[in-house]
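Input record (Table S2, row 452):
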Amino acid sequence: MTKPFVPTHPPRGTGPVATWRGFFGERARTSVHGWSERMFELPYYQREVLRFRIHVLLDPPLIEHVVLTNQANYLKPGLAKTLLGPVIGTGLLTADGTLWREQRKIVAASFSPAAVEKVRPVFGAASRTAVAEWRSGEVRDVAVDATRATMLIIAETLFSADPRLTSDEALCHIAAALDGISEPRLQALLGLPMVPLTPRARRGAVGQRYLRATLNQLVDERLAAGAGGDDFLDTLITALRAKFAPEEARRLAIDNAATFYLAGHETTSNALAWTLYLLSEQPHWQDRLAAEAQGALGSAEWGRAPVTTLLPQLHTVLQESLRLYPPAPRFDRQAAGEDLLPNGEAVRPGDIVSIWPWLLHRSRRLWDQPDVFDPDRFAPDRPKPGRYQYLPFGAGPRICVGAQFATVEALTILAHWLAEWRFVATGRRVEVTGLVTMRPKDGLRLRVERRS
Ligand code: HEM
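Output record (protoporphyrin IX containing FE complex):
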């Protein structure tokens, strides 16, 4: 019997956290920092932050009500639109109502299981490119390798590998753009002008301008060439032009190019990094998965059967990793009208409802030993967790449109890497950081050793 492994998580306090702490110090940098123990037990919690009343939903029936049953009343929050608007405009992630529905219909086909199967060879090739320069025995930041691999994959699968999206310069700008997105949130909350005040916010603004300008250029070039190709961007432009007036179609093409470029790589790269961290601490799991991956990659079924079937143990580990470190640790909605939650709490127009996979996935009411790494909880012979209890990809009609893409991509990359390489912890403490997505603080430095 091996000792239960409790992977890293931020310290927890005993009492409620003061609101101001959300704007200064570690909690302002790390959204999952400083939650009190109580929050991992409660089904519901209410707090006021500046002029907003926030309902934190920690019980599956409450979540089902908001994301499914009465979802028409719950929109993407105004604050998120203010912060993300300069980068992703009114693309799929931030749009509501009819504009959202039309865009979802347009992009759904590009992310269907059949479409994802078609791009699996790209995932394999990117996995091999990423390790080409690795030297056995060296210590590397594998979080950076994961980001590069997922970024190349998005650039290749969605934008036919345009070099303006894959250069080192692009990589730096995009990382800064993402990092700077939530920096001016106090200004946004107070309704003040969104002037970048901190160095991080200024770097973010430069990165965001670079991304928008590059995608503007890309879309205009595609439009000038007739957008007759069959990659994601050309398909998107053609479908948008069939539905919207030319100028709106052009703007939505740029908004969605930015949306998919940003939403489509950072989350998956964080999932990869957290999985490698967990495995570096659990060598016996790593050896099991290496054997499974070697068998799958060498079989005639690779490339034909679904990766989830060929890599059942790796799939349980990925699911457990997404439970412990959901790359999107929270997502919110804002009430359009009045409502009554199933627990009897009244919701007023403008209230925020906040859904926290980070808290929900570690709730002591819902999980057995929630802080322990135990991939077997996802084994096929065990009962599946409830639909609204485990939501790394969200739930309801707005569930992540890239969930299948991300799962197949992550499993493919991990299979290639684990089959050939051993990832060894260096003894350095790993900590969590991030406001919008959750990643290892200061990267993930691991020793990589070639398996003989
Ligand atoms: C492990 C990887 C990923 C995770 C954990 C993740 C997580 C999520 C979550 C939680 C949502 C729902 C947010 C909400 O309801 O407010 C979401 C939405 C979305 N995701 Fe992902 N995502 C991942 C990968 C991807 C990929 C690979 C793509 C695209 C290539 C993508 C594109 C999107 C888009 C466009 C939406 C908005 C969908 C809509 O509102 O209709 N994501 N994602």
